[in-house]
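Honest question from a wet-lab person: if I give you the sequences of every part of a complex, can you actually get the arrangement of the whole thing, not just the pieces? Trying it with mine:
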Amino acid sequence: MERRDFIRNSALASASMMVPGFLKALGRNGLYVPPTNSNGKRLVVIQLSGGNDGLNCVVPFRNDLYYQARPSLGLKDADIIKITDDVALNSNLQGLADLFNNGNMAIINSVGYPNPNRSHFRSMDIWQSASDENQYLYSGWLGRYLDATCDGTCAKPYAAIEIDDTLSLSLKGDVMKGLAFSGPGILHSSSQNPIIRGVANEYKPNNDHPEVEYLQKTLAETMESADYIYAHSKTFKSQRTYPANAFGNHLKTIAELICSGCDSSVYYISLPGFDTHVFQKGQQSKALKSLSDGVTAFCQDLKDNEKFNDTVIMTFSEFGRRVAQNASGGTDHGTANNIYVIGGKLAKPGIYNPMPDLQNLDEGDLIFNTDFRQVYATMLEKVLGVNSEKVLGKKFDLMNFV
Amino acid sequence: MASRQKKIQHLFLRAGFGETPDRIHSLLNNPIPSIVDQLFATSKDYKDIDYLPYPIPEDEEKNGIGAFKLIKMFLKSYGDMEELNGEWLFKMTYTPAVLREKMTFFWHNHFSTSTPLAYLMQVQNNTLRKNALGKFGDLLHAVAKDPAMILYLNNQQNKKAHPNENFAREVMELFTLGVGHYTENDIKESARAFTGWTVNAKGEYQFNDKQHDFDEKEFLGQKGNFNGDDILNIILSNKQVAIFITTKIYREFVNPDVNMERVEQLAESFFKSGYDISAMMRNIYMSDWFYDDENIGAKVSSPVELIVRYKKLINLDVTNKKTLVDVQKALGQVLFFPPNVAGWKGGNAWIDSSSLLLRLSIPLYIIRGEGLIIKTKPHPEENPDDTPKDADAERGKITSDWTALENTFKNLPGDKQAESMIESFIQCDDSRIDRNLIKTGWMNTDKDTLTLNIAAIMSLPEFQLI
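Yes, you can. This is the full assembly:
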């Protein structure tokens, strides 16, 4: 037998014989902790990376200023789906238009923060950490949500899941961190490494060495989470068609987890490709179609399994784009943007607040009127059931969309 | 108490990026002060990284492409950034001036900068290396005029008519004093002093007197027609700078759990020495307390420290430089791409479920010889359609060479072998490590056990601690 085959086989063989000793160490009910939020709701966050041009998603098709600023990029009748008397969606968002018409979607306009930063990295940092624009935080808002659930015992890492190979700052708390994996199968197989399993199985709290304790405890919780995810990924297999790309696969994974009874309260996923400086139309259309088709299939799966009413989906992007198009058939980094909230039971679906004011711009950019942390605070209080001040460091006015 | 071997390893892991067991074994009879002297002596000479040539060809310069030079630099930069990354990893691994390289790495995080202009990042890297063991004041003045820093913190937009406060704020908050030792008004006034500190079209520092505010400023209780250098000198005259920098150095080089009494002593001599970085580092490495058990293996190695350690121990290498950039990305630290101007937090913040699982799985990936394909998030400016597909045969391929380590341990008797390996690779207290797991985890025959046993030790959480 080749050595590599041997290693692979022994990995599988020994793992199946292991007694999960770390479960005892973590307490009797280690494996099946009830959901961390008291109301049984879950939040799905979709990050649109690169700076989505919100103005060509939710189109003010009766506003001349829009077409003046975007002579060739402004969307005409053939490229839009009218959803109210003066608002239309990009025609690539057919699925979202249907959700909107069914009362399952709210559009929040002009969301942002003061002195907006136009660097992808810094602005994403601000959105993910929920900091002030001149403040640097090492933790993210959903990670601090996990921290806030710690009351004697903490939630498990799988309480907040990101489908990706790496964990975003959003899900890193000061104490707790979420769990990132690109698929339950991959997570399962890397958790079968017998050395790692062995260490996790032998885990006992070590008060003599805080660093060793931290690593071993994290490992034991990771193994526990990997087992939990694997067990809750198999009962439901989606038959629907998701976009044939990473985003589609990841969204399908989330649907399968939720419908298999996984009781995580936060799911996080990214869709890239929104940095449309050049020839925006083709690139943005493709990304929006992924978003719309993916979310449509996702919502159908949730409806079929009676999970749609206790799920809230939100999108966000690090910034919107300049109102005026540039000379390359694209748009440059901008400021305030819109957020889409989707769910089976929204308190106030529809166009939540007035469309952006194209008359009064700040050097060609939209002026925000809703702090992004008002949206976060609302999600934290009304969906995740925690004190938002504890997570965001200050009080923000709550909104009424959920 | 930690053995002499672990103490010497401790010195090399903190003052450099670790050394091979053979090198450590050869030093076992040398007194620690002489090893410290040797470390400083070998870090006197150094070479710049000159991997990236100046990106604007001479003939174009003659044709006067003027303001477009920076844009041209930018367009060339994507691939260059990965090349530069690999080049620095290589230098960290093979330079004899390990102490200087480790300090350069520390200052890269302290003066956290990221611009998409690879050439300018190389220029800054050389500036940091040159001043890494000199006077902190010289380093600070040099960084304030560093083109990459000027662009990163918007000093290019800092003009007399519209001051931009970004650099003035960060120089006090993150580079010298720390929050609470200056007012918002100090920021406003000092921003005026840095007006006109710009980068010209060639990518060099240039003082633009037309944009500079020559009028009087009031800063930290003093009044005068201060320029930027005056402001930096006023900041440096405050002992708080010594405390701020020493605390950060202590956290990074001694223990993340800071002993304030020791920091104050170190800071006192740091300040008195005129901010002599070498003298302070020597103070630390020569002290007895540096080798106390509580400081050995007390720190989670950063992703870059971990990668360089692997390169030193088993010649870890890749055929496509992007692979190691991907590993850095997945573990949370990409050279030249700190998350923001505050830098990487370090310590336990490196560890989450997925990064820990990847860290502990690396030895298994290596010995299986399989590709390490990591799907990291695309760069925000990247169109996902343009990203290379996983099918790229060279992508993810890792090579390694275990011969040196096998030779080190192969002649030891069986029972001593495992203990000697643990002694070499585990810094913290190893008494709780399950020896049986190392021997039997991946094996039930005695064929080729040595490499597997070493790899098993490297899969333990304790290996992550340095």
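Two things worth pointing out. Residues 1-36 of chain A have pLDDT under 50 and may be disordered. Chain A has 13 helices and twelve strands.
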